[in-house]
Amino acid sequence: xxxRADYDSAWKDALSAYFPEFLGMLxxxxxxxxxxxxxxxxxxxxxxxxxxxxxxxxxxxxxLVSVRLLDGQEAWLLIHVEVQARCDSEFTRRMFDYxxxxxxxxxxxRLLNMAVLxxxxxxxLDRLQAGVGAMCYAYDEAGCELRFTFPVIRxxxxxxxxxxxxxLAENNLFxxxxxxxxxxxxxxxxxxxxxxxxELVRHxxxxxxxxxNRRTLFRVIDAMLYLPxxxxxxxxxxxxxxEEEQKMAYVTSIERVRSKQARAEGLKEGLERGREQGFxxxxxxxxxxxxxxxxxxxxxxxxxxxxxxxxxxDEASLQKWMLRLLDAERIEDVFI
Length: 336
Description:
alpha/beta
Protein backbone atom coordinates (compact mmCIF):
# COMPACT_ATOMS: atom_id res chain seq x y z
CA UNK A 1 0.00 0.00 0.00
CA UNK A 2 1.62 3.29 -1.13
CA UNK A 3 1.59 6.34 1.03
CA ARG A 4 0.60 9.54 -0.74
CA ALA A 5 3.06 12.35 -1.35
CA ASP A 6 2.39 15.11 1.17
CA TYR A 7 3.31 18.06 -1.02
CA ASP A 8 1.20 20.62 0.82
CA SER A 9 2.80 20.19 4.25
CA ALA A 10 6.25 19.92 2.65
CA TRP A 11 5.84 23.23 0.85
CA LYS A 12 4.39 24.96 3.91
CA ASP A 13 7.35 23.81 6.02
CA ALA A 14 9.85 24.81 3.33
CA LEU A 15 8.40 28.30 2.78
CA SER A 16 8.27 28.96 6.52
CA ALA A 17 11.84 27.78 7.11
CA TYR A 18 13.52 29.15 3.98
CA PHE A 19 11.49 32.13 2.77
CA PRO A 20 14.47 34.42 1.98
CA GLU A 21 16.19 31.55 0.17
CA PHE A 22 12.97 30.85 -1.76
CA LEU A 23 12.81 34.40 -3.12
CA GLY A 24 16.56 34.64 -3.64
CA MET A 25 16.50 31.61 -5.89
CA LEU A 26 13.14 31.79 -7.65
CA UNK A 27 12.37 35.53 -7.74
CA UNK A 28 15.64 37.45 -7.21
CA UNK A 29 14.15 40.77 -8.38
CA UNK A 30 11.72 40.80 -5.46
CA UNK A 31 14.39 39.49 -3.07
CA UNK A 32 16.61 42.47 -3.99
CA UNK A 33 13.89 44.97 -2.98
CA UNK A 34 13.48 43.62 0.56
CA UNK A 35 15.27 44.86 3.67
CA UNK A 36 16.28 41.53 5.19
CA UNK A 37 17.46 43.14 8.42
CA UNK A 38 13.74 43.07 9.32
CA UNK A 39 12.35 39.57 9.81
CA UNK A 40 9.43 38.63 7.52
CA UNK A 41 6.12 38.09 9.30
CA UNK A 42 3.82 35.24 8.33
CA UNK A 43 0.23 36.51 8.46
CA UNK A 44 -1.61 33.26 9.17
CA UNK A 45 -4.61 34.98 10.79
CA UNK A 46 -5.05 37.40 7.89
CA UNK A 47 -4.64 34.57 5.39
CA UNK A 48 -7.36 32.49 7.03
CA UNK A 49 -9.70 35.48 6.84
CA UNK A 50 -8.81 35.84 3.17
CA UNK A 51 -9.54 32.27 2.11
CA UNK A 52 -12.49 31.63 4.42
CA UNK A 53 -15.46 30.65 2.29
CA UNK A 54 -13.38 29.90 -0.81
CA UNK A 55 -13.26 26.48 -2.40
CA UNK A 56 -9.85 24.93 -1.94
CA UNK A 57 -8.56 21.52 -2.91
CA UNK A 58 -5.87 19.48 -1.19
CA UNK A 59 -3.29 20.55 -3.74
CA UNK A 60 -3.09 24.27 -2.99
CA UNK A 61 -0.64 25.97 -0.65
CA UNK A 62 -0.75 29.65 0.30
CA UNK A 63 1.53 31.83 2.37
CA LEU A 64 0.88 35.50 3.17
CA VAL A 65 4.05 37.28 4.24
CA SER A 66 4.70 40.84 5.37
CA VAL A 67 8.14 42.23 4.47
CA ARG A 68 9.93 45.59 4.87
CA LEU A 69 11.14 47.03 1.58
CA LEU A 70 14.36 48.97 1.16
CA ASP A 71 12.35 52.20 0.79
CA GLY A 72 11.07 51.66 4.34
CA GLN A 73 7.53 50.71 3.30
CA GLU A 74 5.75 47.48 4.21
CA ALA A 75 4.52 45.13 1.51
CA TRP A 76 2.50 41.92 1.60
CA LEU A 77 3.43 38.98 -0.57
CA LEU A 78 0.86 36.28 -1.29
CA ILE A 79 2.71 33.13 -2.37
CA HIS A 80 0.39 30.67 -4.07
CA VAL A 81 1.71 27.19 -4.88
CA GLU A 82 -0.18 24.89 -7.23
CA VAL A 83 1.13 21.43 -6.34
CA GLN A 84 -0.61 19.53 -9.10
CA ALA A 85 0.02 18.08 -12.54
CA ARG A 86 -1.65 20.81 -14.55
CA CYS A 87 -2.91 24.36 -14.20
CA ASP A 88 -6.72 24.31 -14.43
CA SER A 89 -8.86 26.82 -16.28
CA GLU A 90 -9.79 28.61 -13.04
CA PHE A 91 -6.19 29.39 -12.10
CA THR A 92 -5.94 33.00 -13.31
CA ARG A 93 -9.41 33.87 -12.03
CA ARG A 94 -8.51 32.43 -8.62
CA MET A 95 -5.35 34.56 -8.49
CA PHE A 96 -7.39 37.65 -9.34
CA ASP A 97 -9.95 36.76 -6.68
CA TYR A 98 -7.25 36.47 -4.01
CA UNK A 99 -5.83 39.86 -4.99
CA UNK A 100 -9.24 41.54 -4.88
CA UNK A 101 -10.00 40.03 -1.47
CA UNK A 102 -6.70 41.24 -0.07
CA UNK A 103 -7.03 44.72 -1.55
CA UNK A 104 -10.61 45.02 -0.31
CA UNK A 105 -9.74 43.98 3.25
CA UNK A 106 -6.42 45.85 3.43
CA UNK A 107 -6.68 48.75 0.94
CA UNK A 108 -3.58 50.57 2.20
CA UNK A 109 -1.25 47.60 1.85
CA ARG A 110 1.16 47.21 -1.04
CA LEU A 111 0.42 43.81 -2.54
CA LEU A 112 2.21 41.31 -4.71
CA ASN A 113 0.64 38.02 -5.75
CA MET A 114 2.93 35.37 -7.18
CA ALA A 115 2.37 31.76 -8.14
CA VAL A 116 4.59 28.69 -8.19
CA LEU A 117 3.63 25.85 -10.53
CA UNK A 118 5.19 22.49 -9.69
CA UNK A 119 3.63 20.09 -12.20
CA UNK A 120 5.29 18.71 -15.32
CA UNK A 121 2.35 19.35 -17.63
CA UNK A 122 1.16 22.83 -16.72
CA UNK A 123 -1.52 23.20 -19.36
CA UNK A 124 -1.08 26.24 -21.57
CA LEU A 125 2.15 27.33 -19.86
CA ASP A 126 4.75 26.11 -22.34
CA ARG A 127 5.38 29.73 -23.26
CA LEU A 128 6.80 30.33 -19.77
CA GLN A 129 10.33 29.40 -20.72
CA ALA A 130 12.12 31.66 -18.25
CA GLY A 131 12.37 31.04 -14.51
CA VAL A 132 9.84 33.81 -13.85
CA GLY A 133 7.13 34.49 -16.39
CA ALA A 134 3.75 36.19 -16.21
CA MET A 135 0.11 35.32 -16.64
CA CYS A 136 -2.99 37.43 -16.56
CA TYR A 137 -6.69 37.33 -15.85
CA ALA A 138 -8.50 39.51 -18.39
CA TYR A 139 -11.85 40.26 -19.92
CA ASP A 140 -13.31 42.92 -22.20
CA GLU A 141 -17.08 43.30 -22.35
CA ALA A 142 -18.58 46.18 -24.32
CA GLY A 143 -15.70 48.47 -23.47
CA CYS A 144 -15.48 47.39 -19.84
CA GLU A 145 -11.95 45.98 -19.76
CA LEU A 146 -9.80 44.48 -17.01
CA ARG A 147 -6.33 42.97 -17.05
CA PHE A 148 -4.62 41.59 -13.93
CA THR A 149 -1.06 40.36 -14.50
CA PHE A 150 1.01 38.45 -11.95
CA PRO A 151 4.39 36.68 -11.90
CA VAL A 152 4.47 32.92 -12.29
CA ILE A 153 7.40 30.66 -11.40
CA ARG A 154 7.39 27.35 -13.24
CA UNK A 155 9.65 24.79 -11.55
CA UNK A 156 9.75 22.59 -14.65
CA UNK A 157 12.07 25.18 -16.18
CA UNK A 158 14.75 23.90 -13.79
CA UNK A 159 14.55 20.24 -14.86
CA UNK A 160 17.16 20.71 -17.59
CA UNK A 161 19.39 22.46 -15.03
CA UNK A 162 19.50 19.84 -12.29
CA UNK A 163 23.30 19.91 -12.19
CA UNK A 164 23.18 23.66 -11.57
CA UNK A 165 20.64 23.12 -8.79
CA UNK A 166 23.00 20.69 -7.07
CA UNK A 167 25.72 23.32 -7.19
CA LEU A 168 23.35 25.99 -5.85
CA ALA A 169 22.31 23.77 -2.94
CA GLU A 170 25.55 24.48 -1.10
CA ASN A 171 24.67 28.21 -0.93
CA ASN A 172 20.87 28.18 -1.07
CA LEU A 173 18.96 25.51 0.86
CA PHE A 174 15.80 26.06 -1.15
CA UNK A 175 17.56 24.45 -4.10
CA UNK A 176 17.20 21.18 -2.16
CA UNK A 177 13.42 21.72 -1.99
CA UNK A 178 13.25 22.31 -5.75
CA UNK A 179 15.38 19.22 -6.38
CA UNK A 180 13.05 17.14 -4.20
CA UNK A 181 9.97 18.42 -6.05
CA UNK A 182 11.52 17.75 -9.46
CA UNK A 183 12.60 14.27 -8.42
CA UNK A 184 9.09 13.63 -7.09
CA UNK A 185 7.56 14.37 -10.50
CA UNK A 186 10.29 12.63 -12.53
CA UNK A 187 9.47 9.63 -14.70
CA UNK A 188 10.66 6.22 -13.60
CA UNK A 189 9.81 3.19 -11.50
CA UNK A 190 9.39 3.10 -7.73
CA UNK A 191 12.91 1.77 -7.25
CA UNK A 192 14.31 4.71 -9.21
CA UNK A 193 12.43 7.00 -6.82
CA UNK A 194 13.93 5.15 -3.86
CA UNK A 195 17.46 5.62 -5.18
CA UNK A 196 16.89 9.31 -5.91
CA UNK A 197 15.46 9.82 -2.44
CA UNK A 198 18.42 8.16 -0.74
CA GLU A 199 20.83 10.17 -2.89
CA LEU A 200 19.20 13.47 -1.89
CA VAL A 201 19.44 12.66 1.82
CA ARG A 202 23.05 11.53 1.47
CA HIS A 203 23.96 14.75 -0.35
CA UNK A 204 22.81 16.92 2.56
CA UNK A 205 26.24 16.43 4.13
CA UNK A 206 28.08 16.91 0.83
CA UNK A 207 26.23 20.21 0.36
CA UNK A 208 27.42 21.20 3.84
CA UNK A 209 23.87 21.72 5.05
CA UNK A 210 24.03 22.80 8.72
CA UNK A 211 22.94 19.99 10.99
CA UNK A 212 20.06 21.98 12.46
CA ASN A 213 18.62 22.27 8.92
CA ARG A 214 19.13 18.69 7.82
CA ARG A 215 16.15 17.25 9.68
CA THR A 216 13.85 19.95 8.23
CA LEU A 217 15.02 19.17 4.70
CA PHE A 218 14.83 15.44 5.40
CA ARG A 219 11.14 15.83 6.31
CA VAL A 220 10.54 17.79 3.09
CA ILE A 221 12.28 15.12 0.99
CA ASP A 222 10.48 12.31 2.80
CA ALA A 223 7.06 13.95 2.34
CA MET A 224 7.53 14.69 -1.37
CA LEU A 225 9.13 11.43 -2.51
CA TYR A 226 6.65 8.86 -1.25
CA LEU A 227 7.44 5.16 -1.68
CA PRO A 228 5.38 1.97 -1.96
CA UNK A 229 5.06 0.15 1.34
CA UNK A 230 7.36 -2.67 0.25
CA UNK A 231 10.27 -0.26 -0.32
CA UNK A 232 9.97 1.62 2.98
CA UNK A 233 12.10 -0.89 4.98
CA UNK A 234 14.88 -0.56 2.41
CA UNK A 235 14.74 3.22 2.74
CA UNK A 236 14.81 2.96 6.54
CA UNK A 237 17.88 0.73 6.34
CA UNK A 238 19.64 3.21 4.04
CA UNK A 239 18.85 6.11 6.38
CA UNK A 240 20.22 4.13 9.33
CA UNK A 241 23.46 3.63 7.40
CA UNK A 242 23.64 7.34 6.51
CA GLU A 243 23.03 8.28 10.15
CA GLU A 244 25.91 6.07 11.23
CA GLU A 245 28.21 7.51 8.56
CA GLN A 246 27.32 11.12 9.36
CA LYS A 247 26.99 10.54 13.11
CA MET A 248 23.61 12.25 13.39
CA ALA A 249 19.98 11.16 13.66
CA TYR A 250 17.52 12.10 10.94
CA VAL A 251 14.74 10.07 12.56
CA THR A 252 14.27 9.74 16.32
CA SER A 253 13.68 6.37 17.96
CA ILE A 254 10.11 7.42 18.79
CA GLU A 255 9.46 8.30 15.13
CA ARG A 256 10.83 4.92 14.05
CA VAL A 257 8.53 3.06 16.44
CA ARG A 258 5.52 5.10 15.35
CA SER A 259 6.39 4.53 11.69
CA LYS A 260 6.51 0.76 12.18
CA GLN A 261 3.25 0.82 14.12
CA ALA A 262 1.60 2.91 11.42
CA ARG A 263 2.70 0.45 8.73
CA ALA A 264 1.44 -2.53 10.68
CA GLU A 265 -1.88 -0.80 11.32
CA GLY A 266 -2.04 0.28 7.70
CA LEU A 267 -1.54 -3.28 6.47
CA LYS A 268 -4.24 -4.60 8.80
CA GLU A 269 -6.60 -1.83 7.83
CA GLY A 270 -5.87 -2.45 4.15
CA LEU A 271 -6.88 -6.09 4.43
CA GLU A 272 -10.07 -5.19 6.26
CA ARG A 273 -10.90 -2.37 3.91
CA GLY A 274 -10.34 -4.61 0.91
CA ARG A 275 -13.32 -6.72 1.95
CA GLU A 276 -15.49 -3.64 2.39
CA GLN A 277 -14.24 -1.67 -0.57
CA GLY A 278 -16.65 -3.07 -3.12
CA PHE A 279 -19.73 -2.07 -1.13
CA UNK A 280 -18.38 1.30 0.00
CA UNK A 281 -17.13 2.26 -3.45
CA UNK A 282 -20.51 1.55 -4.98
CA UNK A 283 -22.24 3.58 -2.28
CA UNK A 284 -19.85 6.51 -2.72
CA UNK A 285 -20.27 6.51 -6.50
CA UNK A 286 -24.03 6.56 -6.13
CA UNK A 287 -23.95 9.51 -3.74
CA UNK A 288 -21.47 11.37 -5.97
CA UNK A 289 -23.72 10.91 -9.00
CA UNK A 290 -26.77 12.13 -7.08
CA UNK A 291 -24.91 15.20 -5.78
CA UNK A 292 -23.64 16.05 -9.27
CA UNK A 293 -27.17 15.84 -10.69
CA UNK A 294 -28.64 18.05 -7.95
CA UNK A 295 -25.88 20.66 -8.14
CA UNK A 296 -26.28 20.93 -11.91
CA UNK A 297 -30.04 21.20 -11.56
CA UNK A 298 -29.65 24.13 -9.15
CA UNK A 299 -26.61 25.98 -10.51
CA UNK A 300 -26.13 24.79 -14.09
CA UNK A 301 -22.93 23.38 -15.61
CA UNK A 302 -20.50 21.92 -13.08
CA UNK A 303 -17.11 23.76 -12.93
CA UNK A 304 -13.93 21.69 -13.23
CA UNK A 305 -12.91 22.38 -9.63
CA UNK A 306 -16.29 21.16 -8.32
CA UNK A 307 -16.04 17.94 -10.31
CA UNK A 308 -12.57 17.34 -8.88
CA UNK A 309 -13.85 17.88 -5.33
CA UNK A 310 -16.70 15.42 -5.88
CA UNK A 311 -14.45 12.82 -7.50
CA UNK A 312 -11.97 12.94 -4.60
CA UNK A 313 -14.45 13.23 -1.71
CA ASP A 314 -15.34 10.47 0.72
CA GLU A 315 -18.90 9.42 1.55
CA ALA A 316 -19.10 11.63 4.65
CA SER A 317 -18.12 14.77 2.70
CA LEU A 318 -20.60 13.98 -0.07
CA GLN A 319 -23.41 13.59 2.45
CA LYS A 320 -22.42 16.88 4.13
CA TRP A 321 -22.46 18.69 0.78
CA MET A 322 -25.87 17.23 -0.03
CA LEU A 323 -27.26 18.91 3.09
CA ARG A 324 -25.54 22.23 2.36
CA LEU A 325 -27.01 22.23 -1.14
CA LEU A 326 -30.47 22.81 0.30
CA ASP A 327 -29.66 26.33 1.56
CA ALA A 328 -26.72 27.26 -0.69
CA GLU A 329 -27.10 30.46 -2.71
CA ARG A 330 -23.85 29.94 -4.60
CA ILE A 331 -22.17 26.76 -5.77
CA GLU A 332 -19.11 27.74 -3.70
CA ASP A 333 -21.22 27.57 -0.52
CA VAL A 334 -21.85 23.85 -1.09
CA PHE A 335 -18.19 22.85 -0.94
CA ILE A 336 -16.93 24.95 1.99
